[in-house]
Amino acid sequence: MHFFACCALLLVVVTLPTCFVQAGPIKDQCMAAAGITAQDVANRHETDDPGHSVKCFFRCFLENIGIIADNQIIPGAFDRVLGHIVTAEAVERMEATCNMIKSETTHDESCEFAWQISECYEGVRLSDVKKGQRTRNHRG
Description:
Number of strands: 2
Number of helices: 9
Protein name: Odorant-binding protein 56i
Order of helices and strands: HHHHHEEHHHH
CATH superfamily: Pheromone/general odorant binding protein domain
Mean pLDDT: 78
Strand content: under 5%
GO molecular function, one term: odorant binding
Distance between the termini: 12 Å
Shape: globular
Helix content: 55-70%
Number of domains: 1
Structural class: mainly alpha
Signal peptide: 1-23
Oligomer: single chain
CATH class: Mainly Alpha
CATH topology: Recoverin, domain 1
Keywords: Signal
Organism: Drosophila melanogaster (Fruit fly)
Low-confidence stretches: 1-21, 135-140
C-alpha cells in the first residue's frame, strides 16, 4: 500500500499500460539529463531533501509528460494523464490541492516547484485507483 502512495507517478509511468508510450524513454532521458539513477529516484524520501538533481529530474519528467509548462501546472493535466486510472474524486482532490502550488520563475525554483507537484501527486491513495486497474496492475 505504501509503495503506491510513494510512487504513484512512477508506477503509472513504468508499469501501467497508459497513453504514455514515450514515458519510459522520457524517464530515462530525464534521469540522464539530471545525472541521477533510478535508485536515486527510489530513495528520494529517505532524507528531508532529495537534492537538486532529483528535483530537476521531476521538472524534466513532468514537463515532458505534459503536467507542467512555463512553471505552471497545465489546467486539466492530472485528469488527462491519470484520469483513466483514478477516480473522478481523486482527480478533483488532486487538482484542487496541487493546483494551488505556485512557482517562482527561476530555473532552480522550477525544480523545487516540480518537486512540490510530484509530492502533492503522491497523495493519490490505493483507494483512488479505479477497481479494474487495481487487480490488473498489482500482480506481485
